[in-house]
Fold each of these.
Amino acid sequence: MIVVMKDNAREQDINKVIARIKELGYTPHPSQGVEKMIIGIIGIHNREELIESLGAYQGIDKMIPIMEPYKLAGRTFKNENTTIKIGDKVTIGGQNIVLIAGPCAIESEEQVISTARAVKAGGAQILRGGAFKPRTSPYSFQGLQEEGLKMMKRAAAATDLQVITEVVDPRDVELVGKYADIYQIGARNMQNFLLLRELGKTKKPVMLKRGPSATYEEFLMAAEYIMSEGNYNVILCERGIRTFEGYTRNTLDLVSIPVLKKLSHLPVVVDPSHGTGKWDLVEPAAKGAVAMDADGLMIEVHPEPYKALSDGQQSLKFDKFNEMVTQLRAIATTVGRGL
């Protein structure tokens, strides 16, 4: 259920409605829209009880039932697109497409600073890099952990970039938050509900990657876990799903961009590196994502991909990254976006 307040509703009227919702045992989620204040009501609803209890309150314009299960992530709760501010200079979901770039894993000080300088020069605004690396094999490189976070933060500070990095354990949320401007939830953890709830208790932006077998509804319900704890700063990331095709690492579902934007107000970023698993397919996949109105791209870049400890086969060299961005800018202009 959503309570839509009148344009002239006073703050005291809004507070009374919120207090009554709590008294009834529900969780209110107020959100200030462009024109109106709306209050989402989360819980197993008794519709008649809500209508009878709230119908006479001053300031209420109307009450709307929500049919979709993702109540906070859906368009019924908020119809206008969400924009998410990262630092003072970067906005995801706005007019400009945001470039996120960097190595899959932080390997050394030299590697991360050289990459940060290169992607900054190429047009990236956010530096990506993994310090905690959950891998399919327990014997693969698992990341430098806090030391890697420190390296990445120093590189980002030196190049005026924001930082996004993955958190894999609820116990590490506070630690990672000391260094990251955006938390990343990897595909394997899309339904790690304890982790999602813990991140929901923070106010820092969270980029949620789609699980390899997740439907759109399951994807949005994972976002709902974060938002239900009060953190509405969620970015959806399409990174490909598992299908019968074995040539590419995943099957990149570019149709998810317009579908998710139809179902949800949250911004959508695409990861063509994981979506294809092959460096020579990253550029064409990225072009398609820009043409289909993605709000951002996450690209893996490495100074020497053949020496990379993780995902070298899908990482771009510095010159290839620059060439790709030049091509993407032309497409962005065509579809009315900046890059």
Amino acid sequence: MENKLDNFLKKIRFKYKISILNENTLEEVFHIRLSKGTVVGAGFLIAIVYFFLIAFLIIKTPIRGFLPGYTENINLRRQLMQDALVVDSLSEQLDLQIQYMEGLRAVMSGKVLLDSASTTQALSNITSDKISLEPSEREIAYRDSFEASELENINSINSTSEEVETTYLMCSPAKGRVIDTFNIRKRVYGTTIVAVQNTSVLSVLDGIVISSDYSFRNLYVLCIQHADNIVTVYKTRQPFMKQKGTKVHAGEILTTFRNGMDSYFEFELWKDGVAVNPLTYISF
């Protein structure tokens, strides 16, 4: 066993001479002596240096944003929100241009008199004016019957509120001035506030988006299902950044009120199909 170990060490330590000769004079220009152990050690050292160099580049440069786990970087999230708002603005502008072209085509074909559209903006709104957003009589009747059925399902709110309060710690969905509060008799099922500019709407708990629609009241509506039959409803005049089926975490940004944007916001909290007062659990 010792002879084998000695032979192995001798092979590793045995040095080889690498020479570079002049082709014409055969004079030795350069030479180096290396052993197998030296080559292995040098290769290992170079690998370590490369490893730390790559790790440094990943940690200290924006490359880290492409790695799993670094996508929650606050700067990256802020940039994503800004890009989403820009895309939304461009989409709205594109729709306006399409409406303008449709109106212009109607004028050129003789379907619309040129004098009937005094401004470019009015001309672009010809198509959109044909769409009525007012609720029909059937919609109003269905809404009244639905709200009446919900009132019959309201049980003891005090017992429900104690269960939610002792089990969950909810974060505030938004900060602002409360302009309307929960009132079952007046069929007000949530809290309405005017949010502070440059603030965001946040998810109060972990959950999954079960609905993301646009209501007849010209509001974007987002519904999130949480544990134990808790559902939160968010209503704003700004589009949300979450789609149906998306998982969200407590405190995650749903939309942002930028400067100059309408910061109207409604929030509803439902437990087991019963609306409860959000002000009992959350400070806006």
Amino acid sequence: MPFYQKRGQIPEKRHIQFYDESGDLYWEELISREGFGWIYSNVYHINPPTAVSKVGKFRQISLVPWKKEHRHHHLFTHNLNSTGDAISARIPLFFNSDVKFYKAHVNASMDIYYRNGHHDEVIFIHEGKGFLHSNFGRLNLGPGDYTIIPRGVIWQLEINEPMKQIIIETSGPVETPSRYRNRHGQLLESSPLSERDIRTPEYMKPKTDGPVNVKVRLQDGYQSYEYRTHPFDIIGWDGYFFPWVFNINDFMPITGKVHQPPPVHQVFQAPGLVICNFVPRLYDYHPHAVPAPYAHSNVDSDEILYYVKGNFMSRKGMEDGSITFHPGGLPHGPQPGKIKESLGAKETNELAVMIDTFKPLQITTQAKAVDDSDYPSSWL
């Protein structure tokens, strides 16, 4: 969970008079979750944050499922025809009522501002560098960064080097795993990550120009708004609500004498799903340990595994940017020869991101172009 942060100038108390040097009141805005019952931040604007000068047209979008056999899939996502900025480059690949999963090859900076009104977002940076500018400040982004953007944050992505991203759009808050937090919300000593690993926004001077266009993502489409003045006119803020970053290379893997189940690799949770990451680690140290994972039947979950880089011990034919999709109802596991090949191995050098959902996923028609139709027979 994020922790208390403070940036810029704020008054001594909430909801009291707060003046600039000219004697004008700053505009206080409360950004809160679950009504007034959960985390929040108070932000202070130079101009009213509600001044909309123009409402654009609503553009509806719909995801089309690929109605085909219930089977395992392998997608070569680096071959997707994706280009543009951090929003226009997104290609949807999987979805259900809890989550939407996209791949994006981003080669342009955004010239508009963006706000997701109905979803939280995780943007994983596979390759590339840039800056996330938001109403809370600036975050420097690079390879391996999970960028957590709560719904309601207004942001713009500046590209310094072209990025390859995966985007996980969730129906609710993205949090660190409950079992790794104490009753006060602090990450436990036994957690594979700590608050020291979390990067928070760098305060930037307020902007006062305008008008500014903001593209708002809703449940089934996009709505644009023109604001009279810049939404980044914030003189200060404090609270628990803000975007933040955790890098996959800061995850400290939990290992054991025999093969550990995938939950030890969990890094985040959200309604209806968990996010895990696989990082370089020592293998099991029982003298008869089998480092390769055992075969597994997904009875209550679907699994997406995104391969970032390295030597993927249990699978052959994987490339950087490959996705395997193992839907519920079917067993999956190491491919032929991989169990024996793993015996006696001491360590693995791999980076991968896994999403397990607890409702069935649908694969989109856009995935057809990069799907390996022979993958289901790769266990023969």
Amino acid sequence: MTQNLTLSLAATSVAALLAAAPTLAQADATVAFLMPDQASTRYEEHDHPGFVAAMSELCPDCTVIYQNANADATLQQQQFNSVIAQGAEVIVLNPVDSSAGAAMVSIAQSQGVRVIAYDRPIPDNVADFYVSFDNEGIGFAIAESLVEHMEASGIPAGSGVLQINGSPTDAAAGLIRDGIHRALRASDYETLAEFDTPDWAPPRAQEWTAGQITRFGDQITGIVAANDGTGGGAIAALKAAGADPLPPVTGNDATIAALQLIIAGDQYNTISKPSEIVAAAAAEVAVAFLQGEDPEATTELYDTPSQLFVPAVVTRENIKAEIFDAGIQQPETVCTSEYVAACRELGIVD
């Protein structure tokens, strides 16, 4: 997969995207922003506010309709039909089920409505555009980082790793899985077991991990989890089983809970991907479509013109620079009472 756009500071990147965007001539347009679930807190906390903020800059008089399907594909179909009925001319769609998303693309395009696939691709049909982070690159990066850490820690070749993937109905989860496979197969470590987590639900990841702990015990020397929620579920299972020390566990999304786990030493890595950057890019693409223009693509995925952003891996060693010095999170938000000492140790707070 082509890795074409590297993230720097979130504010700088978003500002650059907006500064380069055209001014909207059509002032009464309606754009819909449809997100898949609330288990991943990023959609409510970052993606939606970021998209609204960007649209308010690019098209102050446009109407933005926001809906979250709460992991219900049937509900998302109803929401999709509703926003078309409300006159949406562009729909930014992050599908609960990527296969169901293909049918939505056909419905929209038959009515002249443009669809921007967002975060999760739609492999079975060609959307008008795709905006996301490089999901296969993310999977490869978190797994490669874990492998390098295990090697540096002296964990011997042939030791066992668990792999916790995302939802089986999410094509982005499949890309992350493929990236993890690529990194682990190039390593000297053995994959003990692998799990596709329904709806990315942390309790399901925790339940599965608990079963693997019973099955494999001390053979588990690392866990590659596809996001922070599933990683947090794995960590909860390890702690409940009395594992000490914890094997290194990966993540992805840089949620506040994951950052706290990394600071405490319970989680090894995550991915910093300020969702506002992708949200701003989606707003820019939407505005171009409303103007009758073809937005600029930097690559192609599933035959769809695309923009893919390459995020940074965050560990305890670089969390201060990547998260706090970059302004992605504030120390007072993350370094709450039980984490103050560890934050002080890392130089995050005085």
